[in-house]
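Structure ticket #2291
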Amino acid sequence: MSAEEKQFSLEVLTLNCWGVPVPFACKYRKERFLSIAEEISKRNFDIVILQEVWAESDYKLLQQHILKTMPYCHYFQSGTIGSGVCVFSKLAIEDSFYHLFPLNGYFHKVQHGDWFGGKGLGMCRVSIQGISINIYCTHLHAEYDMESDEYIAHRVAQAFDMSQFIKYTSGSCDLAIVGGDFNLRPTDLGYKMIVTNGNLHDCWLAKNEENESGHTNERKDNSFSTHNVQRLEPVGRRLDYLLYKANEGVDVEVGSCKLDFGKIPDKPYNYSDHEGVAARLLVQRKKDLEKSPDSTDENKLYDLLLESKTIVQKGLTKARSDNLFYTILCIVCTIALYGFWCTEMERETSHLVVVGRAVIFVTLTLLVAFFLFYKLIINKIEFKGLTGAEEDISNLCSSVKKRIKHN
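Resolution: structure written out below.
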């Protein structure tokens, strides 16, 4: 084996900035973004991955400060309001691509908003000392209700889709770095799928234990933590991650990994409702190395695939049920509208009655249109997305099963 090449370090940060541009829904947004921008510009990061940068004005504010020390950036446009995900880098961004998740929640759940963000997985290519690096960044669908999670099938499908995309695109680079708010705990199926099928390593676990010290959301010491979540998870939860994968000929060691961007100095509040995760990766290229075998645990992956398939199938059952439900509602409202239309109006009616009938007629018409649109468009998108996820999971499941038998 020849001598190792010179080692270099990469300082990487991921942070959910909590930038919902809705009055009263996001506290101190402008003040916090200014603090985030100023702090990042002072630090020595090589790669910064940010989420929930929804407003264009917030992104421009970040650019004004950060580009002074990190001259390259990319915002991943998607959906109706943008993905909210962006990357700042000291290294030139050579290429970029955005992979849209087939499933993104429900458009009529306006209060959640994930559907409008067009969530997916962004990728930027950079290089240093001849080593090519794929930076993957994402923000998966939120949970909203821990006791009754209506989006679990969507999130599992997103996690599988993400793991497949990373698995099949990371072979073209020397090093893959994945960061973002996964909205998944380390014990959740989705996280296990991403790490196992994507053959990724968790920076936090390389240097720390899996305990409350690594929790990034709903912490007791975060000024924006909510009572409802802390009632169920008193010590918070770990949702934000930095993962990596080193390909043949590249050696990577996690020099450090810690939580960052907690409380703003001289302020009574935090930078965000999430803590940031910062890691220092020590990277070097080695020559004349034998090809390292695939370290994926096939038996573990097979079990995860079976569990994922079960959850997606439950989601399909719900989608079929929703389709029937909205079909019935559409028929009922159509019958009511037809009956209302056929009812003869008395020749002499008061102005109030005329207005009332007009309101009822318009309301019934809108309801019929909404139920029909949901049944024919939105429900079909969900059904096809879940069906595609089930078929992809089944294909991989069969392949893994054959490999296990062969071995």
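Closing remark: The chain has a mean pLDDT of 88.
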